[in-house]
Here is the input.
Amino acid sequence: MTDTPLLSLDASYYTDEKIFKAEQQGLLARTWQFAGHASQLEQTGDYFTVEIAGESLFCIRDDNHELKCFYNVCQHRAHRLLEGSGNTRLITCPYHAWNYHLSGKLRAGPNIKVVPGFDVNKICLSSVRVEDFHGFVFVNLDMEAKPMDDWFPEVRNQLKSYVPHINKLKPVRWIEVPEVCNWKVSVENYSECYHCKLNHRTFATGVVKPETYDIQPQGYCLRHTTECQNLDKMTYPIDLASNEHAGDYSSWFLWPLFSFQVYPGNILNTYHWRALDANNVLLWRGWYSENGQANEVIDTLATQDMDTTVAEDIGLVEAVQQGLKSRGYRPGPLVIDPAGGVDSEHSIATLQQWMRHTDGQYFY
Here is the structure.
């Protein structure tokens, strides 16, 4: 009896709008999603809005300087409360001027005292689960969700060891990249380096050593590790003596739509995806420096990354999406090397298993 190769997912997982709608109601509503950075919420009353799983939300710093997240909807007659970002002392609905404390509790509204039995203490904005993960704000629409440390074990401590100054970082550059493909196509592309030597020459010859590249699951995290390229080939300078991980590259992809990535030299950058529909996703590349100060190396890297790896990936993922719509496509076998390594798709096998279900809960 011979082993049967593991096949990739059926094309409908990437093209069917019904599956995408099911993901919004299930998977994307019950997993931890990146909302923004804590530096956007430094002062009492600072807020920003964000859309997650088809829901408008806002994160805000309350009077006790606690981080809060609410559905962006008035409890009176459902008007949206806030737009964009800013600072406010009260959350006031623009429709009928009902206003709420920063804690989410109703404060007042025009003529509400004439209503028999009206109790402002019984009305509060609907809360959303929120966590601060080294200054990165994540939310989860499932109020019963396990904490991020349960989903992504050891990631918090590992990030701190790779980027000792992570809690001092602020965004210095965010780049928005629209891709005409399903979010899972883009995430899969990020989650293997089988294609890197052929398609990402600058990354593979000027940043990392592909022969040392491997990806392994760590809870609902895919952990990428490799060594930096030889110093004489690096596209930017690094000081190997500055930190125990200065010569290492590592990435922590947090299922389903976010990744911390640390370039050699302890340079933190991030990927986060926003799934728009079955055939479109927005990708953001984030770059961070200590206190948000201008940094020539980071600026050079961000430009290099956009002109090479990101631009190269756009062509790849959009071509895959077109191929998935072809009647000639049949799911092919994944190349799974028991030893792992750069020329193996074992990480895709793990990822596609998560796509089918998460923590025993099926979403399709």
Remarks:
- The two ends are 32 Å apart (CA to CA).
- Residues 296-324 form the longest helix (29 residues).
- The chain has a mean pLDDT of 94.
- The CA atoms of residues 143 and 181 lie 30 Å apart.
